[in-house]
Amino acid sequence: MSAEALLSVEGLTVGFNTEEGPVRVVEDVSFSVVAGETLGLVGESGCGKSVTAQTIMRLLPSPPARIDGGRIRFEGEDLVVLPEPRMRKVRGDRIGMVFQEPMTSLNPTQRIGRQIAEVLALHRGMNYTQAKESVIDALRKVGIGNAERRLDQYPHELSGGLRQRVMIAMAIVCRPKLLIADEPTTALDVTIQAQIMELLKALQRELGLAILLITHDLGMVAEMCRSLAVMYAGRIVETGPAATVFARPRHPYTAGLLSSSPRQARRGERLPSIPGLVPPPGKRSTGCSFADRCGRVTDRCRRELPPLASFGAGAAACWNPVP
Amino acid sequence: MLAYLARRLAASLLILLGISVVTFGLTFMIPADPVAMIAGRNSTAEVRAQIRHQLGLDRPLPAQYASYLGRLVQGDLGRSYARKSDVGPLIVSRLPPTLLLMLGAIVAELLIGLPAGIYAASRRGRTGDKVAMTLSFVSVSTPQFVLGLTLIYLFAYLLNWFPLGGYGSLSHLILPALTLGLAGGGWYSRMMRSSMIEVLRNDYIRTARAKGMPEWRVILGHGLRNAIVPIVAMVGLDVGIFMSGVVVVENVYGWPGIGQLMWQAIQSLDIPIIMGVTTVAACFIVLGNLVADLAAPLIDPRIRLR
Ligand SMILES: Nc1ncnc2c1ncn2[C@@H]1O[C@H](COP(=O)(O)OP(=O)(O)OP(=O)(O)O)[C@@H](O)[C@H]1O
Ligand code: SF4
Ligand SMILES: [Mg+2]
Q: Is any ligand 1 atom within 6 A of the Cβ of residue A47?
């Protein structure tokens, strides 16, 4: 898998300087995204998915955010140490990003045509007139009808679904190799969610786009993703081909998620709840963070951190994996 | 939009009416008898009574107010006691210098305040931010006459860059405008800083960064327009804030505007001029507020006038 990886995150560790001192939010996270394929990154709210995604784009303001270790390899470069001017050439051009909050992610005072054209101005040096055609083309690609008229609209004139399509248009207008979609449909209602997912699949086919799809929704993973990484309390606890993990989860957390939803997880289902609470960053023990909620817990789990160990095509971080 | 305008205009008229009551009341609060001033100290009681009658001061208050308002509506601000001329034309002739001074002060405070605030926001919590905010504090807390005299001493007397005072050319304008506008510049730098910091927290700022935009373009291209809305609203209000500063600054610099006129009128207790200037100033303040409200939606299309 790693041979043809477009993006490979290795041992990424991210912390924040807070008033109560530094906290680790993402710890030793590794995964890779193969060119043209989709990797699903799932996990409960607050486990560090967005922090991971925004760290790849180096969008977190520093301070307070800090990359404490690891590498982010993308097309032969390490984004962790890439100087800012060169990082700017990656953002928006080689990696596009769509955010969790479609309602607020567009500038309310600018017409959407200009906001999309801006990406082309930055990376292709086009003025608005030159960019217009590509912008209309991008709007058509994301399924926005009547594109010429939409150009001159303001975000508040568009629905949430349309705004997210505009965000996607903005992310793909320079034809990036990788799209990071951070819960692109969480804020939208179910029918719109399905449409956006279809759209992402179509764009992937058309543009050969690799997608890092962050989601709560196991059904979405089953439908969209070739491979899967499960995050818990800032760490990857299980990873592997989606089919393998769904068929035979090895980490008790993954197993818990899947057992409460049918094996053929349907779209629209949120992560089922497992009793107990995720330990907040800074309050994590030296052992396995899942210990307090785990049915298979042993003494060792609380003492020692389980490393990610291979099981066939996948890997899980557990001392007593599900057989 | 038209309905909004109509309602705002009606409200403004009501406010002006209220102000006319207050200015009218002013006449009776000032501890000086205008009759004595016109007639002179040694006048007889009959002469005083006659003057009182001529001025209409022997009539009941509501009647006096009604005729005052009636004249006001026709643009008649009365006659100066001391200058023996009509107040209206007097004020009109003194207005252009004052408006010029205010315009200069607005330009000065924006040229100082906005860049300083943007800079401080972009260096938030670092040395540059702290230096800018300290300077802003100093500029806000310096009294205008101290600032005026200091500037005159440094730049007019010692360095000879500008004339010592007077009116006539751009170089006459610069020091008075700075004096009037510097405190506002300090305020604006603080407002701009906090407004910009607030705006930079928005999700669309993150979107702009995700496009690969350099930070200064993010700030100027996506932050500024949104951050500046509350500031623009303030510019209209400045006209009101300047009204008192104008009296000080015009006197320090010998600037022949309504501030100087007001000062002289206060010294000679020339009540019609005091009332006239107050009324005109009130009109400007109300107008400034109106302009501030109407300008907001031009900058931010989400703000709808209702
Ligand atoms: N600026 C910050 N300072 C301190 N802690 C932060 C900061 N930003 C995020 N965190 C913490 O990092 C953790 C992970 O947040 P993140 O937004 O990545 O979660 P997430 O997995 O994306 O959740 P969700 O599914 O709700 O989007 C949270 O516990 C959050 O409190
Ligand atoms: S390491 Fe122990 S506590 Fe953690 S998931 Fe595995 S069995 Fe449960
Ligand atoms: Mg998130």
A: yes
